[in-house]
Specification:
By secondary structure, the chain is α/β, with parallel strands linked by helices. The chain contains 14 helices and ten strands.
Length: 336
């Protein structure tokens, strides 16, 4: 996902693995008003012109750059506007600055968080300026994947112990004679470099630059039926276009990721969370109640993501299509 790829310890419960910065899919969508600044550090100094406006029936949502998060916001925005009569403004903010903006009331809600234990401790437990808005209903998981067509030809490649056997087939011009492990942005928080080193794998982590660039590379490999090994995550609509099979890393156990430099285990599965500004949670009326009730499935999110990223619908158009098809699902989110 995005921004900060630092070496802080990961929580055994939640972890900040998906750090993507900018995905073109949201930029071209006229339905989402994106307020941006010069850099991530400046984002918290910019707020929606409608945020906390006296007497205005408005909601400001943080929208992250990966398409799954955009799908959450698109559907929430559509229903807030068309069913509850709110004006919705969205602000694109990197993950860590988004917590600062949420604490300050510059945004009202984050719809998809992959786990930031440091921020939870500071803002939820200590300052109490942010509250947990409940499960999104989607479980996130990071892993290493190979194309299913390659896994069928070489079933043992799906065990990390056999990866070195295939390093020569997975090398590229960018991997320096070693096998290539394709990652997204250098800003993503991953364990991949440590895993390659600690598991003694003859691989080089190669960053594509962004989620969009990584998707393009994966599609090119798949079109040519070339083997590849990539860092990837679920939920993600691309699995419907390029079937991939996960490589089994040493199993995740509680605390195995406490020391980022010594990690030898797989990534955990993470129930994705929503977070609300504490004042908004208390005084946000039907909008706050709706966002707390918002809960859908991986299949729901992927359905909208596929329309945005692959079919090139605007987020508003994709949201409308989903809303028209799933009335019984979203009606349960509306406050009584």
């Amino acid at each position: 996902m995005r921004g900060p790829f630092n070496n802080r310890p990961f929580s055994s419960r939640l972890f900040s693995t998906r750090r993507r910065r900018t995905l073109a899919a949201v930029a071209g969508a006229g339905a989402l008003l994106v307020v941006t600044g010069c850099g991530a550090a400046d984002m918290t100094k910019q707020s929606s012109p409608y945020a906390n406006a006296d007497g205005a029936k408005t909601v400001t949502l943080s929208v992250q750059s990966w398409v799954g998060a955009q799908s959450n916001v698109a559907v929430a925005q559509y229903l807030l506007e068309h069913e509850l009569g709110y004006r919705v403004d969205t602000v694109q903010v990197d993950e860590i600055p988004a917590w600062d903006a949420l604490s300050q009331g510059r945004v009202d809600a984050i719809m998809e968080d992959w786990g930031h234990p440091d921020q939870e401790a500071r803002y939820v437990k200590d300052k109490k300026t942010i509250v947990n808005g409940g499960d999104l209903g989607v479980t996130g998981h990071i892993g290493w994947f190979v194309p299913t067509y390659f896994a069928k030809q070489h079933p043992d490649v799906t065990n990390w112990k056999n990866l070195n056997k295939y390093a020569s087939q997975l090398k590229t011009a960018e991997s320096g004679g070693k096998g290539q492990l394709l990652d997204g942005s250098p800003s993503y928080v991953t364990n991949d470099k440590a895993l390659v080193k600690n598991l003694k794998l003859n691989y080089q982590v190669v960053f594509s630059g962004s989620e969009a660039a990584q998707i393009t590379q994966i599609k090119q490999f798949a079109k040519q039926k070339k083997p590849f090994l990539t860092y990837w995550y679920q939920p993600q609509w691309l699995f419907k276009k390029v079937p991939m099979t996960e490589v089994k890393l040493p199993p995740y156990k509680e605390g195995c990721d406490a020391d980022p430099e010594a990690i030898t285990c797989a990534y955990p599965k993470t129930p994705l969370q929503k977070y609300l500004n504490a004042d908004f949670s208390k005084d946000g009326g039907k909008a706050a109640a709706f966002l707390k009730n918002f809960r859908w499935t991986t299949e729901d999110q992927n359905e909208v993501s596929l329309m945005i990223a692959e079919q090139k619908l605007s987020p508003d158009q994709a949201a409308k299509k989903w809303v028209d098809r799933h009335r019984s699902t979203w009606q349960a989110w509306l406050p009584k």
